[in-house]
Amino acid sequence: MPKANTRYARGAVAIIVTTAVGFAVWALSPSLVDTPLPWDAAWPFYSTILLSTGFLVSQVTIKPWLGFFGVWAGQVFALVALPLDRTTNMFGPAVWWALGVVGTGVGSLILVVGWLLGKTLQRKLKKDA
Fold first, then answer.
1. Which residues of the chain have pLDDT under 70?
2. How high is the pLDDT of residue 82?
């Protein structure tokens, strides 16, 4: 497979995986941490998932924005599709969609920090080898 095609395939994998993680963190939050909103869970839950996802994505792609966009899109899709309080979604009576879109965007920056940590470690190990 030519190098350009491999790069595009890795980018596609990064977007697909991070979108799935972004959706899953919201979909599984009620059963894993007993709260419908993962950012309301005890501290390291939401941050750890996004940070570790960023770390893993750093091993696949050289573009952190792919991971950021994917995890953010997955979270926004979850906000629209899933019933947050188990009766309404983000477009319910309170219309919290603007806060959700901005909040998940800011939270997704944690993935970029994980990506930077992963790339730093990768370069250090490569240099030491």
1. 1-2, 4, 84-95
2. 84
* b/e code 65-103 from CB counts within 10 Å (16+ = b): ebbbbbbbbbbbebbeebebeeeebbeeeeebeeebeee
CA distance 76 to 71: 9
Cβ neighbors of 97 (< 8 A, separation 6 or more) are 79, 80, 90, 91
On whether the CB atoms of residues 124 and 64 are closer than 8 A, the answer is no
Q: Give CB contacts under 8 A, 24+ apart, made by 8-11.
A: 10/60, 10/61, 11/61, 11/63, 11/66
Q: 28: closest CA among 87, 97, 82?
A: 82
Among the listed residues 117, 9, 25, the one whose alpha carbon sits nearest the alpha carbon of residue 71 = 25
- Tokens at residue 112, please? 């970029």
Q: How far apart are the first and last CA of the chain?
A: 27
19 φ/ψ sector (left φ>0, alpha ψ -120 to 50, else beta): alpha
Return the pLDDT at 81: 87
